[in-house]
Amino acid sequence: MKAKIINLALAEISVLIAVSIAEKSPMALLVPVNLLYAIAIIPIALLIMNRNPFGFPTFIVLMALATAKALANSEIFYSLLDAVYYLGFRGLAEYVESMFSAYESKPDIIPLLSIVVLFSMAQIIWNIEKKLEKWNIEIGYSIAVLGIVGTAIILFYPIVLSIHPHGFPLLFAGLIGVSAILIGISLIVRN
Amino acid sequence: MKVREVSYTLISITALLIGWGIITTSYEIIAVSIAPLLFLAVPYHVSVKLRDARISGGEFVGDVFEVKIVMDASGFGIVKAMHRIPEHFMVEGKNVAASFVLGKSELVISYRARALRRGRYKLKDVVLEIEHPFLAWRFVRKMEVDLTLDVRQKLRKIKKVETLRGVAKSPMPDVDVAKIGVPGTDFREIRDYVPGDPMKFVNWKATARRGKLMVNQYEVEGKKAVWIFLDANSYMAFGRSVRNYLECGIEIANALAYYFISRGHKVGLYVLGHGICLHPDVGKRQFRRIGEELMRLEIGNETLEEAFEKCKKLLAIYKPLVILITRPEYSNPKRFSSEIIKLGIPIQIIALRGKMEGDEFALKLFEIMRKSALKGLRNVVEWDIERPTTKLIARVVR
Question: With an 8 Å Cβ cutoff, are B98 and A113 in contact?
Answer without folding.
Answer: no
